[in-house]
Structure formats: C-alpha cells, structure tokens
From TrEMBL:
SUPFAM superfamilies: ACT-like (SSF55021), P-loop containing nucleoside triphosphate hydrolases (SSF52540). Keywords: Amino-acid transport, ATP-binding, Cell membrane, Membrane, Nucleotide-binding, Translocase, Transport. This is Methionine ABC transporter ATP-binding protein. It holds the Pfam family NIL. GO terms for molecular function: ATP binding. The keyword Translocase applies. Residues 4-246 form the ABC transporter domain. CDD domains: ABC_MetN_methionine_transporter.
Amino acid sequence: MPLISLRNVTKSFPPGRRGEPLVHAIDNVSLDIEAGEIYGIIGYSGAGKSTLVRLINALEKATSGDIIVDGHQVTNVPDRQLRTLRLDIGMIFQQFNLFSAKTVWNNVAYPLRVAGRTRDEIQARVTELLDFVGLADKASNYPEQLSGGQKQRVGIARALATSPKILLADEATSALDPETTHEVLRLLRRVNEELGITIVVITHEMDVIQTLATKVAVMDSGRIVEQGDVFDVFSNPREASSQRFVSTVVRGIPAPDELAALRERHRGRIVTFSFRDGDSSQASVFLELAAAGIEFELIYGGINDIRGRAFGHLTLALTGADSVIDTTLHHMAGRITVKELA
C-alpha cells in the first residue's frame, strides 16, 4: 500500500462574486507516493501545488475524494484524530515560520513540548537534531541572528522533532540563493537516505526536482497533467506544461526564431542529435562525424544528468559533401534520434 494515496480528490472554493462558478483549486487528482520516495510536485503559481500539500496533512479539507496517509483516512475525521496523525507529518515552509522570540533550541523543542515529551527526552532529541543539521553551535541564537539557510535548517530540525514518517516541503528553497539552496537540498537528501523519511517537495523550480526528487507530478490548473520518474518526464515530456518546465533547465531543439538567428551566424547543414540514457554517447557521435571527414560546430543545446543518467539535445552545424553527410546521418539514425532542421 502506498504511504500516501489520493483518489479523485477535489478541493473547491466559493467564487469571488455571486453568480460565478466554484473555483476548483484541486480538480479530480489521483496520486500515489510510496514510502521512502522523494516525490516532487511542480507547477506554476496557481497550479494548486500548495493546496494539494495542505490536503495531505488536513490543514485543508477535501471537497470530495479520498486521502489515505499511512493507512489512515484523513478526510472528514475528528480533530483529535488529526492531531495524532500530524505527529507523523513534518512540514517546512518558504518563509521558515520560526518563532522570532524563541532561541534556535526552543524553536526545535516546541513541537516536543506540545507532544508532552519529558525534559530529558526533549534535551536528547534537540541535541541530536541540531547536530544533524549542523547548528549545534547556534542553539542559543535567535532567528534574526541566522542566515536564510540556517533558518531553513532550523525549520528542518523542528519538522523532524517528533520523528515523522513524512516531510512536506512547500517551496522550501524559494527564498534562498543558489548556493544555499544546494546546501538545503543536500540536507534533505540526508533526511531521506539516513532517516528513511518520505519527502514530498512542492516547488516551481525545476532544478530542485532534478537535484532531489525520484518521482515527479506536473500540475496545471488544479490537475496532474503528467507524472512518473523524474528522468522519464524530463527526457521525454509529453504535455505542454511539462515541456515548458523542462525548457528552463534543458535547451531543446531551436525554435524557428532561434534557428533563423543560428543560420545567419553559421554555415552548413544544421542537425539536432537527441540523446537519452542508453543511446550512443556524444563522444561516439563526434568521432563518427570526424571519421567521415565532416566538419562540425556545436551551436545550440546541452546535456543534463539525473542521477548518472544523461539526456539532452545537441544542435550542430555540419560542413562537408552532402552525400557523405546523408550516409553518416542515416547510419546514426538507428542508434540515436537525428533531426535535420529545415
């Protein structure tokens, strides 16, 4: 059984004005997240990502459908039962949501006090967590004395305080600079690998999904339009929303205006070679072109790597005898996707 399962879930809000239709923030969503996964949910602003994560921990109640978390139904259950359920779900936020008047130590200790843990239990657990996130020397500091990355690490420690099975990260790196983002992502990977915690990452940043997640769902207008392994969705996106996201991290085949600009700057025939894990390598393509006496220049594109699996598109300008180019491209087409751009 999946750790988190949504079936035909809808969340509707009243219209802004009388006579307008209901607003479906979540529209008939079905989704399974297995224990131990890092599952990314990506979409542009207004896609419904944050509403979806609030449904998982019942901060919002679904209008219809079923949400099962660790074998427990979370829709339409009493608040007392929800409080118990939420002990197994930690959450970190874009703006950290720390208590400004509490020290780092007391921020992390807060959920343990609420859960009724003893003083000795709190002492041991906070010490353990501050060491885990690398902030043992900041225990007596206040949030205003910390950097953004340090604040988020406090947020992660606090979210882990009650030893949850699930960690929900809602745009957790959006307020951070790129270097600090990678530090936080490395920490989240440790949370998953060393503590065995399932992580659900809500983001609009494709780099976050590429770096951290194992599975991804793409949301658009309250619906999941595509889902699967991160490599499969990135390397072969089927839906327009997915293609737009992938284009932010992977340069694909040049658009018509880009192609026109390339033709002005480069002579020869322009050909795109699309690579996917298991195909011939870039190096073998370059060697084969050189062996055939074809001159080539890389003019567009790039190769991406997701957990050791490569994919991407390289557009080359080829110069040589047309018959030789034709024969070479035909030979390559059995091993790799080749497209000459008209």
